[in-house]
Write a structure and sequence with these properties.
2 copies of one chain form a homodimer. Chain A has helices spanning 6-13, 17-25, 45-59, 64-76, 81-119; strands spanning 34-35, 41-42. By secondary structure, chain A is mainly alpha-helical. Chain A binds a DNA duplex (30 and 30 nucleotides) through residues 5-7, 16-19, 21-22, 26, 37-41, 58, 63-65.
Amino acid sequence: MSGLSIGQVADRTGLSVHTLRFYERQGLLTQPVRRGSAGHRVYSEDDVDWLGVCIRLRASGMPLTDIRRYTDLVRAGQGNEVERLEVLREHRERVLAQMHELDECLQLITHKVAVYEGRLGLRDNVTDCALP
Amino acid sequence: MSGLSIGQVADRTGLSVHTLRFYERQGLLTQPVRRGSAGHRVYSEDDVDWLGVCIRLRASGMPLTDIRRYTDLVRAGQGNEVERLEVLREHRERVLAQMHELDECLQLITHKVAVYEGRLGLRDNVTDCALP
DNA sequence: GTTTGACCTAGAGTCGGCTCTAGATTCTAC
DNA sequence: GTAGAATCTAGAGCCGACTCTAGGTCAAAC
């Protein structure tokens, strides 16, 4: 219930106060952030929760413009669930593709690591082959 | 054996000719690219293979400066395997961390997708809860 | 009553990673 | 031999996502 200052939200989310203001300007919040006495931002728990979602989406590579589009849909309220679903499904596909790519990279690295360990005698039975 | 033009390498790797020249300037190639008669670049199969490695490393989020550092080690030749190993292991940790993050994001998205599908009646038995 | 620290706005600056331009040269096909 | 495509260099430009600065307000602690 409380109402949190921008500094408190920064502490909780790990975003800087700069970034919090920046995200607000970019329209990443579902409601305009409430203001207290002196025009200071007062964040609700819901705001913080939503920021958590944004952080996850960013961490998974969604560009700010897309997060904004999604936020716009949520802000608009009920009636656009189909569009929201579309955004989410599309992003899920991208995330899956990204995981797949990471996995391929991981195999490459793991292989190289094994080969170097073999070379250095840190490990036996490694079939050494073309490098690098 | 052949020797490939920059255009051919662009086709094969999916990088643009601009990017290929840029990567070269950034020192991402283990050998200076051979030049033909008129000063045109002539890439070897090894160059293309190495570019493939760079592409993988980039795709997994390694910054150009780190790829460059690693390339420098490879270019320097034998004797620095320990350092190469260190670079690779560090990157592997980052990749694993990134996969973990992606997985968490995937769970969030999948959950939201399920809830919206439930709301839209596309699916039954979904325990609807706090959204967005 | 003044100093300290958190906050405000508007706007400028930075950084990574490309991407493009200009102006010149060279190769390829007719 | 000439038009059109591909290449070259050097350097400028762009975009996304922050990050910081300047100049100011305000509350609380000393």
